[in-house]
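Researcher: Next entry in the queue.
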Amino acid sequence: MTGPTSTADQPKDRPEDRPESYVSPLPTPRPHLGHALASEWTKLVSVRSTLFTLGSLVVLVVGIGLLAVVEIRNTDDSFMPLTAPALFGLLIGQVAVMALGVLTITSEYGTGLIRTTFTAAPGRARVLTAKYLVFAGVAFAAVAGSVAVVAFASLILRNDGRHGAGEWVHALAGSAYVTLLGVLALAVGAMLRHSAGAIAVMLGLVTVPPVAGGMLTSWERLAPVGRTILEYNAPVALMQMFGVPNGIEGERLPSNWSHMLLILLVTGAAVAGSYVLVRRRDV
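Model: Structure for this entry, 283 residues:
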């Protein structure tokens, strides 16, 4: 009768005795940002919310802008910049840009697709970066294209030769400003993970400051704070960039770049916060 085999007598698991590891015959490239960009582009253009929101933006900016062009042509306001008529539709159309920014990420949280996304692409920072880049490119193209249509219509109907290249630069700055509002909305959506809540926050950021600033100016002690709020808010910034009088006194009028710097700082802080939260949370 053979006794139990000691541990020393058992055959050792030598590397040369192990079966060779499986090697896939298919090419398996390492995932990179280009793959994430392609994926986010497909997701953005394949959902109906993108068509509805961007379609609303174009209809509002072009439709209201063309009506404004005709009205300005029949008045003595020919001194206004060529791109100024686009502002009137853009003040409403910016809501569509912000809504699309929120839905770009919260729709995945609502359907649970975000779990699949993070499983297929564990690099969450790369996924979020792709979302920001794809959304910013699409939003800027839609806003700038709509503004350009109105501007060219204004140029045809008001060809008085008194408009320079500076007006186009300011219009591009205004388009970038609205795009940054959309990026800010995407960041808020990434942090809150709730469509209605994120849209409500963005609407509050855009609509509350002008009202609050007007109320504070009626109180002597808080009047300086109210005037500052009135000078630095989204509607006033857009009016200034598109060359439309906004009621701010000339000596107190901030520069266009002051408005851009403010929105860049706010958006940058929100984007940084979204990266931190997305990396720390389970989903």
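Model: The chain has a mean pLDDT of 85.
Researcher: Noted, moving on.
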